[in-house]
What we know:
By secondary structure, this protein is α/β, with parallel strands linked by helices. It has two domains: about 170 residues, Rossmann fold (3-Layer(aba) Sandwich); about 190 residues, Up-down Bundle (Dehydroquinate synthase-like, alpha domain). The chain has 13 helices and 13 strands. Helix 3 crosses helix 4, helix 6 packs across helix 8 and helix 9 crosses helix 12. Bound molecules: nicotinamide-adenine-dinucleotide and glycine. The site of nicotinamide-adenine-dinucleotide (NAD) has 30 residues, from helix 4, helix 5, helix 6 and helix 10.
Amino acid sequence: MRRLNVALADRSYPILIGGGLLSRADLILPFLRTKRAALVSNVTVAPLYLDVLARGLEKVGVGVTPIILADGEAHKNWESLNLIYDALLATRCDRGTTIVALGGGVIGDLAGFAAATYQRGVPFIQIPTTLLSQVDSSVGGKTGINHPRGKNMVGAFWQPKLVLADTDTLRTLPDRELSAGMAEVIKYGLIRDLPFLDWLETNMDGLMARDGALLAHAIETSCANKAQVVAADEYETAKEGGRALLNLGHTFGHAIETGMGYGEWLHGEAVAAGTIMAVELSRRLGWLTAADVARVRALFARAGLPVRGAELGAARYLELMSHDKKVIAGSLRLVLLKALGEAVTYADVPQEDIAAAIESCCRE
Ligand code: NAD
Ligand code: GLY
């Protein structure tokens, strides 16, 4: 088992990564406030993994309330959130109850927001079961739901007490979801870790073949990068750079997700196409070479990810992007690359350049 730490003073917490962790109630018990846990999962993940987790906890005397939601990004909304509150109230969960998210990023974001708000906040544990959630969404405390007008528009920062990533769960993950998670893995290389980008280029075929040791290394390196960024700028308030850099490709990607309808494109797929747009825009600004762009495209393609954007039209992209959370006082801050491995936030990109980058990435 590998162990990392997210250093946030008195709210610091460990990330445990390894095989066979779901049944290790002994790892979870020290992080429960009382011996009561609500396990939030969905109809796909619960039949696979809820029993082993619940049985382990019950064996050590923890009372377990399962809350099973519908599956999918289209359900990351008020209705699902209310179902969680309904179940917590119906089973008399109190402020000592720990909410445990068992699933991918959708369940993690929903359960985390429920934990942030139920009775003004209860303890929360993340047990991520997708590659994307193990390398990104379970770490850092961003929680929330979508609004029909925009992704993740309602939410809260609420750090978990523990992140427990059981890499064995990735064995049942569909190929398309593995690829989607790889978009966020590649992101860390592109924004701040050039040696990791090189390593990914060398090992992408093994990773996509689900080599356990390679996946564990990719998860650990991704989490280590995310933990450092979050520790330095927990609330994404840095004037330049900071946590916003984790959103490389996301402003374009969120436009695809919202514009196409939630669930049509997977989050990681939209991030991949959005990253190509950001990379192409960085080339147009003179920061990257055509060879850099080709290198990034090739890596995403090897990970089974789309390198071409959804054909929404540049005007629709720009309209959707104007609602982004990175718009401050009417000015859109984009995450771009000064070089491979070096991301910056940049506010002064002319709309024509953004539109041209979008159009070229939807054509090629
Ligand atoms: P997801 O939660 O929809 O999971 C993908 C699919 O895989 C679902 O159908 C799920 O039921 C299934 N699944 C999960 N684990 C499985 C397993 N082990 N075996 C088989 N099937 C399994 O999607 P995701 O990619 O994990 O997360 C995407 C979400 O995460 C988006 O809503 C995105 O906005 C959010 N996100 C949040 C943050 C954050 O910091 N909070 C960061 C990145 C992404
Ligand atoms: N996924 C972006 C963040 O956690 O800040």
